[in-house]
Amino acid sequence: MDQSQEQAGLGPRRLAWNAVTETLKRRVPLDDVLDELGPAENLSSRDEALARAIAIVTFRRLGTIGQALRDRLDKAARDERLLHLLAIGAAQILYLDVPDHAAVDTAVQLAQSEHRLKHAGGLINAVLRRVAREREAILGKQDAWLDTPTWLEEGWVSHYGEELAAKIAAAHRAMPSVDLTVKGDAAAWAERLGGILLPTGSVRLTERTAIRDLPGYDEGAWWVQDTAAAIPARLLRPQPGERIADLCAAPGGKTAQLAAAGADVLAVDRSAKRLKRLEENLARLNLTVATRAIDAEKLDEKPFDAILLDAPCSATGTIRRHPDVAWTKDGDDLRKLAALQSRLLDKAASLLKPGGRLVYCTCSLEAEEGEIQAEAFLNRHPEMKREPITPDEIGGMTECLTPAGDLRTLPCHLDLPDHDRSGLDGFFAARFIHSES
Ligand SMILES: C[S@@+](CC[C@H](N)C(=O)[O-])C[C@H]1O[C@@H](n2cnc3c(N)ncnc32)[C@H](O)[C@@H]1O
């Protein structure tokens, strides 16, 4: 059938269905898959947003949805494409404001387009209608661990203990807020945008609106950055005129903070494509930095006053925003990334002036990429000393400091009176000083 003649609403569901399959098959970020597959569907921005919402909530609740489907299917019907189609259907019925019949009918229609599912219409109809009928029972299951793969559960329980680990898992079920980092007066922008001024100085939006339509976007008065992600660059205490390297810089949220503080910044990233995005982002913000597309391990520069190393990591601290992370990574990725982080830390230490400062951070909940990494680094580098972070540097959020004085934010932290606006990304940051003169 010509796509222009097909039933309204099929395009976004087809995109969500294919995106779920490809993300799981290729173990790549959902955002990248949506960017790659989206243009062929030629969707309106509203339908594109619907496709994204369906795919995201499917990943956010993949465990619960998978269990609900397994309970309602016999073993013979466990074809992967069929399961993914049923999963996006169930996600709409259980978690989105979509009429049940639209979720069911579009799934039945989409099955017609795939040869081996041509005869699955009756089954899809029956299973999804049952999910709709039994919605209360499915949603009543409060086991937050259902939506967390075992490799993550084990790591969190062992590092944080049962109680805190369960709170992390529960926090991942909620939709995150959108936070802004403001170049000028954050309180004034919070008022102008109707947002909340957070203790760390970020502004949290209270309405979901198109970011580009908000006042201040065009003139580059602020940029989107989770409040936890905005802390590490501040911990570096960038000073005007200081030579600072941002070793893993793209897409540039933290580079922008360093540049806005007046530092002379070299933004380094291995990916030329991502560095181009950094340049575009900084141009909108009227900020200027030098850039270099190179593997930071190969960087040859005279020593810097300060270095920010926002190292590549498992990104499990961003599961609220990118729930696909939980289902596309595993313990092997963690081990490889931890080895790369160690090498980048060693390189960063070699690029620092005596007395220079280094902030190492990762948007990860895993101790291997945080606390354990920082201790191992100090053991390898007697010339580097930890400079503990103090509560006043992080808006008094003492729960986000480790006994050693590192930053450890969790998605269940920043519990605001408005519970729906609570939470922040999981981040680790440690600050070191080069003590040799
Ligand atoms: C966590 S992201 C950085 C986010 C960025 N600091 C921000 O705040 O917007 C990690 C970045 O490290 C880059 N990267 C990975 N390995 C690298 C390496 N060996 N040298 C330089 N950059 C690297 C990736 O391309 C990616 O852009």
UniProtKB/TrEMBL annotation:
It catalyses: cytidine(967) in 16S rRNA + S-adenosyl-L-methionine = 5-methylcytidine(967) in 16S rRNA + S-adenosyl-L-homocysteine + H(+). SUPFAM superfamilies: NusB-like, S-adenosyl-L-methionine-dependent methyltransferases. It comes from the Bacteria. This is 16S rRNA (cytosine(967)-C(5))-methyltransferase. It is an enzyme of class 2 (transferase). One of its GO terms (biological process) is methylation. Keywords: Cytoplasm, Methyltransferase, RNA-binding, rRNA processing, S-adenosyl-L-methionine, Transferase. Gene3D superfamilies: NusB-like, Vaccinia Virus protein VP39. Coiled coil: none annotated. It comes from Microvirga terricola. Residues 154-435 form the SAM-dependent MTase RsmB/NOP-type domain. Its EC number is 2.1.1.176. S-adenosyl-L-methionine binds at C248, A249, A250, P251, G252, G253, K254, D269, D310. It is found in: Cytoplasm. Belongs to the class I-like SAM-binding methyltransferase superfamily. RsmB/NOP family. PROSITE patterns: NOL1_NOP2_SUN, SAM_MT_RSMB_NOP. One of its GO terms (molecular function) is methyltransferase activity. Specifically methylates the cytosine at position 967 (m5C967) of 16S rRNA. The active site is at C363 (nucleophile). The keyword Transmembrane helix does not apply. Pfam families: Methyltr_RsmB-F, NusB.
